[in-house]
Amino acid sequence: MTPDPPGHPPSALPQPVDPPGATHVVAGVIVDARGRVLLARRTAGRELAGLWEFPGGKVEPGETPEAALARELDEELGIEVELGDPLMVVPHLTPTRRLRLDVRGIRAWRGTPKGYEGQALAWVQPGALPRYDMPDPDRPVVAALLQPDHCLVTPPPGPGDSDATWLAALESALARGVRRVQFRMPGIDRSRRQQLLANAALHCAAAGAQLLVNGDARLACESGLGLHLPAARLRECRARPVADDQPLSASCHDAEELKLAQALGCDFALVGPVHPTPTHPGHGGIGWAGFEALREQASLPIYAIGGLGVDDIAAARSHGAQGIAAIRGLWEA
Hints:
This is 8-oxo-dGTP diphosphatase. Keywords: DNA damage, DNA repair, DNA replication, Hydrolase, Magnesium, Metal-binding, Mutator protein. The chain has 333 residues and is of the alpha/beta class. The chain has helices at residues 65-77, 139-146, 163-175, 190-207, 217-223, 231-236, 255-264, 287-295, 313-318, 328-331; strands at 22-29, 37-41, 52-53, 56-58, 80-93, 98-110, 121-124, 150-153, 180-183, 210-214, 226-229, 248-252, 268-271, 302-305, 323-326. The radius of gyration is 21 Å and the shape is elongated. The protein starts with 21 loop residues before the first strand and ends with a helix. Residues 1-18 have low confidence and may be disordered.
């Protein structure tokens, strides 16, 4: 018997409905007692031969995803599995077909996994997963296992709020588990912004949280922090504006911007607004259907943003998101 996979898979994802013509594929995240994740290599003669993937296969007509995953892992690996929680569903569009990759954790199994279809197997430490060449739909799954499932976008201090009050609110958010923060300070003068950033960096470092500066590449480079590009800045960029070891993200509202973010080498993107928000007056939101239509055209991790909170992480994962990003939904206790 073997423990659940790393990360925090949601306990109950909504059941997605396959779009017309979609190929429904299932995959399992199998983790051994040493914390290693099992990958299988696609055999010669198959599409995408030589790439590594999470074990699984196609759902047959009339078959449930759960039954399909149990059957595929028995046929491919010779193991009898106890399914764990859903992890995420990744919609993906290729030049020839539309896919839905339905991924679950495997709570336990009986037997020793072997490549019964001639495929090579590898037990991989989670941190090494990004080094393996994988099909595009598998990449968001790696991110889901390794990266935070929510991202805080900070509001500026309110009228009359002191820096100490703002920093106390940030510290409270970090204490609640926020591990990725976008430092956004509209309307705040540069001197105060720099001081707040310096203090925020100390708090985030102490909590083990990643910190990115919104829009100011110079400030990000000077501080050695990450950089977040608003959509307008993203469209202006012709090369990655920070070093490879500094996180880079972008706000995207359409397929063109997502492709720009991916080509620029962004580590993740924020996509929305999913629902109407005060920061986007007059915008009704793209809804989950609109979000999913954008998700299927990119392989980088993307957060859903716009009127969302931690209670929406499960829904976001069921539409292919890394998780959710929010201002009020994560700032307020």
